[in-house]
Amino acid sequence: MEYLELEKLHNLKIKAEGFDDYKRATLSSGIGIESNNRIKVEGNKLTIFIPDELKKTLNEGSQIYLGFPVLKRKRNGEETYLPLFIIKKDADKEIEKIEIDTESFSDFFVAKPVLVRALNFEPQEIDELTKKPLLSLLKDFLSLSGMRTSDADTFEGVYKEFKNWLGGKIKKSTYELASFDFVITTDKTRDFEYFEGQKVETILKDLVSDFPQPKENSAAHRYFFGEQTVGFDKYNEPSSVPWFGTFHKFELSRGQALLLQKKAEGENLIAVQGPPGTGKTTVLMAIIASTLVERAISIVKDEKDFSALILVASTANKAVENAAREFELTQTDGKKEIPKEFKEIPLYAEGYGFYFVGGKKKNIQKSLERVENLAERLKKDQFNGEEYENTKRELLKLYSSLDKTAETLKFLIEKIEEIRKLEQHLDEVETRLNEISKRPSAFSNLVNEDLKDLEENIEKTRRWLEDLNSIGFDFKNLPLLMNKDFIKSVIELEQYLQKRNIVDRIMDLFLKREKKEIEKFLIKNQKVLNVLGVNFELDAKKALQNLKKLKNLHLEAKRLLEEKPDDIYLNNLPVIEQIVDLRREKLELTEKLTIKKDQIEETLKEKGLNLQLNASELINGQFNGQLDFLKLWKLLTVETNRKLFVLASRFLYLEALRQKEDILKALDAFKLLMGNKDDVSKGREIVKDLGIEKFYRYLSLVYPVHFSSLHSAPYIFEKVKDLLKKEFYKPIHILYVDEAAMALPHLSYPSVYFSEKVISVGDPLQLEPVVAVPEDEIERFHKTFYNDNIEFINRYSPARTSTYHRTARCETGDYDDFGEACFLDAHRRCQEPIAKLFKVVAGYERLEIATPSLKGKDLERLNKVGGSHLVFVDVLKGKSTEKNTNLIEAKVVKCLVEELINTGYSNDKIIVITPFVKQEKLLQKELKGLLESKKIGTVHKFQGQEAPVVIMSTVVQKNDSTTFIDAKPNLLNVAISRAKHLFIMVGNSKRLKDTNYFGKALEFIRDNGRFIQVEGESKMKGIFLIDKDKVN
Predict the structure, then answer these.
(1) What is the pLDDT of residues 419-441, one digit of tens each?
(2) What angle do CA 546, 549, 554 make, to 5 degrees?
(3) Helix spans in 229-347 (H)
(4) How many CB atoms lie within 10 A of CB 830?
(5) Going by CATH, does the domain composed of 828-1025 fall within 3.40.50.10490?
(6) H or E element that contains 46
């Protein structure tokens, strides 16, 4: 609330009608002269005497406001007083006068918006003026304007010169100097209003003092206290949740579809980052369609109805009117026609229903006339019960069909994901097999050998090794058992020991021949026996046993050697076993893949999707774009979802006819609530009779979409807020904030508080909120109320953040802090080189450019001026009439416009943009008769607009600072992205090449466009006709 008070004091505006004479005062000439006994000047001391009439309004805690000098504004037949400097003083009934020493007094407020609008000051110029004493500040203003004071030592002298300068500076078409110098008023007399923000201020005060705090996890609670929990990329990953109903007959972009998914998932606070030309209107229409379908299905399927009121709000009435234009009847040959998108929508009711434009009184009055017409139509149309039931059945049938499609797609995605994993596994297996095949050539053969043969050879090798293991010998020792001499020795010794009779044995015993023969055998074969591990004893019986064993081992070794497998198997069995395992795994994976692919083929045929989806493309990854549920759903259901929306609209209109009597009551109440005090009282009675929930349910049935500026948005709820408080009811189903990155966070909060869901669409990389309070006042505010806590200031300060940032739960209000937000990823406005230029400047890495190329007359016109979509005109020599102007650039721009018009571009297809208000005025003067003034302006003037040709005058010269225009990409991003076919930047390349964002733009245009150098005023003509571009 304290910041609102600051804004009020910097936007003070007083209604001229009925403003009492005793609240005015004039500073007469001559020091020490009193004017109407209210103002007295002695040297630099200013004394304000409080009129008796004002004293009567004062009590303890009152405030007196003194404003000076005063401008008078005439607009729409109304006159308003606008003081430039405001002094606020606490007062009570005892106060007699206020004394100010102008040499030291600095506790006053500067009306920054008035200085910008009425006097063409740049906002940064005002911020650069440090908070000095009043007298010094007036001198600074005169110095800034190139004037010198004639009497620098007196307040009267400085003030008179300041006022004279003021009279020559103001825009005389809208403003004039008031006939008096000072206004004196109080907070009790209600002379001043805070622009349209008065309603917002009143509601905010009520919410703070009289309404319950928002429930935890509600949209309003998360708007204030929510914190980012996932990264931007993670937030933009789609799910498998379907949405039902869409407005247009064309496929949504991925980012647009992702938003509908978030909404279908039940998210109640959704931020959307929408770079230039990414279809924010399409997003709005899709949200409306899906919401109305949701309502219709809820009634039909669950027999539950709800208010589906969608409030579309923005910072300015103009933006609101631009958004509402999509809904209005079109003019063709003097006849009003229904927009083609609405011809199938019964709820549109020939332009009488569906949408209500609030905001300005004129808009409301026009919309109330449509309410009257809709009421007449409802009275005339009759409810048809049979049609109602048939429509219900059709609606349910179509919804069920889509629901089944969703389940089918989930199944397909699941199977395709399984296939992807199997294919990945298969790739890993083949990679390992390939690695093995790169070993010696024998392995390469094995990798490709018949799997059955491989398995048989492995089994044979395993048995052979088991047999070898059973004899207890190492394979390398087998040849020893096959040695002929050794075997011969074994046989001879065995024969000798076996063939002896009893006499021989006795003789051997005595003669020890038996022992000698065995010893002889051992000596001869000891080495072999040691290797084989056979221990011989000199005992004949035991020797025979060993000899028999050796013979058997010989036979077994002979068999093993005869049956020995290939050496590659014996030496590499583990590797070959691995090959077989991998080959088996590959075979199993291939079989599984075949089964799952067949399942996909069968499912597509069974569900009738085979004509829309090619199974092999899905399976083989040849599908156009990223394959997931989101991609398939938006591709396959666009026509059916449009049909569902049309059918839901038809059903909802029939539902309105079914409840006609209550609908008409709700419309009567709504009209009365828009009227005077007596009407409002009558309207409230009807609302009480209907019930607050039913009132909004009935109203939103025929007027689901409402448009309003954020300042005026409380018209939806302000007249019945006590009833809403009693029921703790949220009348707004969805608050859709357009240009949310330009909206101050507190401006949106009243509407956020009364909303179930909030969708904020904006772009921190485009224009930022306009802050009325000068920077030095903001710093004082931060110190007083935030104790200079940087974290809190960055997250919550009304002067540092925006509606977008709070919706996205950002940690700061910085231009590069995007928080949790859906990214609209498809640009379809600018030609590709222009889009690539602002993509480079702003850093939109995820942005895809889908703009069709020029053809026909558009292409012919472009070719006449060189054929390039990007042009830099280098003006090295500038000339200033005053700060932030460049006369030479203005003359160059004039030549460019003349050439463009001469080559076929009509003047309504060209806009001229500059960063500075003063250059805007200079350009308007130079281009008078060529372009309308509304086609020339600062970047802020053209936010939300576009043109085939945009010329940008950068103004900066050799020694100028570029901090204001180049500290962030926002300003340049918006300027470039207004151009659909041709963007021309005029500037000093030597100065701009060393800047950040303008330097990037200059480099990009050098590489991808035309670079033309203008050497002097005499060579300006025929800029586009220069045969050879001169590159600096």
Answers:
(1) 888 888 989 988 888 887 777 66
(2) 125
(3) 232-235, 254-264, 280-302, 317-324
(4) 27
(5) no
(6) strand 45-49
